[in-house]
Amino acid sequence: MFNFVRRTAAITLMLAGGASAAATSATPAPPHSPQQWRQAAIADIEAAYQITLDNHPGTHDPANPAFRNNLAKARSAGLALAARVRNSAGYRAALQRFNTQIHDGHAGVAVGAIDQLPLRWPGFVAAWRGDGMLVYKSEPGGPPAGARIDSCDGLSMTQLAERNVFAFERRIEERGHWWVYGRDVFIDKGNPFIKLPTRCRFTLNDKQTELPLAWRPLTEQATAWRNVNYNGPTLPVGLTEPRAKLYWVSMPTFQPDERQREAYRAMTAEVRDHRQRYLDADAVVIDLRDNQGGSSAWSLEFAQALWGAGRVSRSINARSAQEHVWWRTSPANIAYVAELVGLLRQEKQESVALEIGLIAEGMQTALARGEKFYVEQDSAAESGQDGGAGKPPDDPPAFTAPVYVVVPGQCASACLDALDYFTMFPNTKLIGAPSAADSTYMEVRVQDLASGLAKVIIPNKVYVGRARAAGQFYSPAIYVNDVEWSPPVFLKAIEADLAGR
């Protein structure tokens, strides 16, 4: 995971795959009996609870007094299932229950690749759209694509998703997660603590049918349908013109490889160097489908090219004027941040290493004073500026053409930062699905558990006074509930909105 730190220098830290505060010397042998799987689940939940309690910023966050209680509930709920674990699927489900009870995307455990039963499906792939479930694709003899799935075994799709999916993974309160993960009602992952649906009712063109479900191994075709159904076919990083004066900006990743980085640079330079072309546009569409976050620098640079660097900077400063960064001063967190300094120096990132080194020193000093947090002295954004309302002499002409931002349900982290930037301006309208949401806890490290089967997720800092609250997501002005999510579908909705302006 990456996170763009809004400071005097832009710092991007590689955290999920980088250093760990507790390295293990060797990977232990995996469990091979029901008793060993059960013991591993119990031990890992107990350890995850204690490590989180000792190191997570939420434990002492005055803005989140429910964190400790949620963590205790997570321990109890996870252990209740752990006592019934007999295999790898049960182990995974017990630890996932631990996660869901905390209600924070940057707390809990990440289970690694462990032996599990082959995935199964009932012959069709589902897609959540709007407030219900549709059939996305189906094998011959199955329910028709586009049919609404009304109920299964007497339960609504909402009830079934709550029971079989969101009780064990993701966050039920984030509407974007329904668009991405609700479909897993019809994927059997071997969870021993749920009951799979056996018979469902479908409606298409006012005609209702009822079919039994025959669960069988997931096919390559099913996997392909499942991989594409919540984003639709996406475009590579770049700028295209589907029709004259309508520009399509594709941003499917903020973790670009070198080829994609070059595409981002070229796209941003094109907008900056030929800005009049976009000032005269009928619309600019920014497509975030498939985006899983990364570095916020790519969307920030594009926003500066489109709206003007001065306007964007003033708007960000006004938005984050009350924002501060508090670093949790546990010994393990300090060791991790100090280790980052060495890694950054090895990579010749001396200026960034200097800043992170100052943070590590500040954390150590605060810990010596018995303080739970080190507050960055320069982390509050500069205030007292006009927030973009005025027009200094060096500002380029204002960009006022309609902007449509295509939002997928998994949009989080740096993808949400992009929405923060784009929606600072009144000519922006969101289209697609609700986004996911972010925690205020950032810059995560991971720490191995003794079993070698999972890692604890520990953020090192918390944003205090961030304009976008923890758990806050974006809702689109235009929902696209079509079962197919493709550029032509979005263009049709955008053209209709433009015609109504």
Q: What features would you describe in this structure?
A:
- The structure is a single chain.
- This protein is α+β, with helices and mostly antiparallel strands and 501 residues long.
- The protein folds into 3 domains: 4-116 and 445-461, Transcription Regulator spoIIAA (2-Layer Sandwich); 120-217, Roll (Pdz3 Domain), CATH 2.30.42.10; 238-323 and 382-442 and 466-499, 2-enoyl-CoA Hydratase, Chain A, domain 1.
- 36% of the residues lie in helices and 20% in strands.
- The protein has 14 helices and 21 strands.
- The chain has helices spanning 34-55, 67-82, 88-102, 157-166, 175-181, 220-228, 258-273, 275-279, 297-307, 309-319, 331-346, 350-368, 414-422, 487-499, and strands at residues 4-5, 11-12, 108-111, 120-121, 124-129, 132-138, 148-152, 155-156, 199-204, 207-212, 216-217, 238-243, 246-250, 283-287, 324-328, 373-375, 403-407, 428-432, 441-448, 454-464, 478-479.
- Strands 5, 6, 7, 8, 9 and 10 form a 6-stranded antiparallel beta sheet that branches. A 6-stranded mixed beta sheet has the order 12-13-14-17-18-21.
- The longest helix is centred in the first third of the chain and has 22 residues, at 34-55.
